[in-house]
Amino acid sequence: MLAIDMLQKCPSTSLHRIPALPFTEPGTDPNPLVELPLLTPCANAQSLRTTLHAVLGSQLRGYGLALDPVRQLATVTLHVHLGDVEQTMRCLMAALPTAQFGRIAKIAMDEVRRCH
Length: 116
Known about the structure:
By secondary structure, this protein is of the alpha+beta class. It has helices spanning 2-9, 45-56, 85-95, and strands spanning 33-41, 62-68, 73-81, 100-101, 105-106. Strands 1, 2, 3, 4 and 5 form a five-stranded antiparallel sheet that branches. The two termini are 22 Å apart.
């Protein structure tokens, strides 16, 4: 009970915009998580992270980010629900017009990268 009280009183918990989702049994989720690879010019990782969270909001379930500082490119692996892919891509194309998308693939729950 003490841990729950501490979490409710902690101001930093309000910074986490994406609630944790309950895990479903494999193969039973009607709207599974998928990986959406993205390659975009990036000089500042924090700026890219801020853009992703601002543009995608709750559609973004998790991501991985790798930077190539020499070429100033970022490879991002976004985790979104299959039903949100079209809207996610529209939002990303508006915010990151030079971004290149890779092949969408279903992922297992143990591969999910949380945003927080």
